Input
Amino acid sequence: MHPEEHLILAYKTKRANLENEEDQIKMFQRKGDQEIEQLVYELDTCLRNQELDGHTVSLLRQELYKAQESYNEIIRKEKHKCHQKLEDNEIDYRKNLSQMN
Output
């Protein structure tokens, strides 16, 4: 195998792995969003059946939304890292390819 073919194969393999990682992050995000929606629904159902004051209900919802924001921030950071790896792979590939020519 020529060095250029080896470089192309390595680039494509790494890119495929990173795209798979990106797909897994998206799947994890969708699953997490569904779980959060279900939790909000269940919380609302439970709270309707309880005699809790409005302040307690408000605090519970606030904590849930804080947790959701933290979750979304983690997902955002993971997506960013994955995109950065894809970009770095592309830059490395182009640099190495130009050095071969």
